[in-house]
Amino acid sequence: MGSKPTIALSHLGCEKNRVDSEHMLGLLAQAGYGIGADEDQADYVIVNTCSFIEAAREESVRTLVELAEANKKIVITGCLAQHFQAELLEEIPEAVALVGTGDYHKIVNVIERAEAGERVKAVSLEPTYIADETVPRYRTTSEGVAYVRVAEGCDYKCAFCIIPHLRGKQRSRPIESIVTEAHQLAAQGVQEIVLISQITTNYGVDLYGKPQLAELIRALGEVDVPWVRMHYAYPTGLTPAVISAIQETPNALPYLDLPLQHSHPELLRSMNRPWQGQVNDAIIQNLKAALPEAVLRTTFIVGFPGETEAQFEHLKTFVQKHEFDHVGVFTFSPEAGTAAYDLPNQIEQSVKDARREEIMLTQQEISFRRNQTQVGKTVDVLIEQENPATGELIGRSARFAPDVDGLVYAKGQAALGQIVSVTIEAADTYDLFGSVAAAAPASTPTLVTESLAI
After folding, report:
1. Architecture of the domain delimited by 378-436
2. Which CATH class is domain 6-122?
3. Which DSSP symbol is given to 453?
4. Known binding residues
5. What are the binding residues for [4Fe-4S] cluster?
6. Cβ(228)–Cβ(191) below 8 Å
7. What single DSSP character describes residue 417?
8. Is CATH 3.80.30.20 correct for 145-372?
9. pTM to 2 decimal places
């Protein structure tokens, strides 16, 4: 019997997709398949696709077409496969298999069947699977950071979002499972764990009958990982219990990623997020009072159908008032299958683009001021890269999440994958600049890399 084929993987989309990619690679490696980064040399290329918005679909399709033109044997996985399961195999003859968002654990069987000459479609009508700590994982992030998915799917019906259709209903992992995986990652030398799901503040509702995020945070406090960061925290779910857990758990970073989407109550009702519109101001003020050192990140959508100039100005004022540390802005993308797809009063793309630019320019001034407050401080930095030409170290302080926020550039010596003290000497809109302090590496989080390509 000959050696097994080599597999390369092209990862597209979010960090939740990345976890799926890492589990597929882990399963394939465990089964004896070669894992390679060179798509030209690989026997199969898995493309883990994104289909969240039009731009993501275009990137996914462009990647598939390029591989097809190179006569590669393609396995299409992820959200595009789930979304367009009836069309993709027909439209891309080079695709040997289609694997849905709830079927990535079948990847070894899929490759075996493809090797036998079968054209495989493994797409569940509604995804129900979620990997746990027993599923092998081939990490593709820098050595010091790992994402841990605490739940999959979503029970909300936001008018602009197709995720429930692509990912299924919410299904949480038990606290014990998550903590066990965190211990495994700590044993591998991971310094930062990032908790992810569609709505992290809803963690546990389906499993325990009520949110259990506070209990999860406290349980992770027993894991020997210096930083535990949380993404996708709905502000209405940041209860006093959750805030207390963050305050009282030494490795829980006071970094709050709040997917607000907008500020105007009427527009939030149109988005099918009416509960949020009445509480944004008060919740953010309360969060700042409870966690004065908190770093706040949020995302907004501009150009939602019917968004008036007055409603847009409300959003701009909201951004100016609350001075978030980090803001991402997206233009509304009409997605077939969502309630907002055919709403009246759709807005011209040029207007959406102009509004996005205006919010981003407003935020740049705020981000610059927020970063300037770090100058002169000595902060903990997770070192993730070294510039081979200059020897300059590149990493992140606790105020910067991987891939979405800024970086810290530091002069000096430090080991990759370790947290060290860096004295900040300068700052611009997005990044900080400094030198490694003479003191020993930091061991506790204070707030005072680019991921490896597959």
Report:
1. Beta Barrel (2.40)
2. alpha beta
3. P
4. 14, 50, 79, 154, 158, 161
5. 14, 50, 79, 154, 158, 161
6. no
7. T
8. yes
9. 0.91
